[in-house]
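re the bet — no i am not wrong, look at it urself. input seq straight from the record:
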Amino acid sequence: MKIYKKLDSEWIKSIRKGSVLLHPTDTIWGLGASAFSRKGFEKIYDIKGRDRSKPLVLLVDSIDRLKNYVHRIPPRIETLLFYNERPLTLIYSDVKMLPEHILAADGSIAIRIVQKAFVKKLIAELDQPLLSTSANLSDADFPKSFDEVTREIKNGVDIIFHPDLPLAETEDAQPSVIARFDDEGQLIFIRK
């Protein structure tokens, strides 16, 4: 298995075509694929042994990119996204220009604006949202560090990106907060 320490245009192209990536996110270690590749989408579920009724998260690098895929962001939510420092995944029900197969049964999708510079750069280079989920087998503990990612997961992916950066791989690593919001922008927390 080849581990890449730097972004590489060749493997970025292969993600667009359906390759699955193991990489650190701004929260924990994750699996990623192009939001527009059915092949990558299916492969993530196969690697994890995940029930396809459980949707994945979409990662974007900016509020501007987010606006390409949602019809409306209440002003209160946009302000929160601009100033928020803790990773926050929000469920959007009014989306556009996204493939139907990545949406939940009710047509919604969870989207997080990433905060770590190297993840932002990865998404910017890909020039599209990245589907994401924790890099663990379904119902197993999520990996807080690269060493906690199982051999089965590492062998299942096409690309491993482990940048030469001081990653926050600690016992404190946690998945993001997940919330929905109403029409006025009031948050309804699903996972704190």
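see?? The two ends are 36 Å apart (CA to CA). told u. also The first strand starts at residue 3 and ends at 4. so pay up
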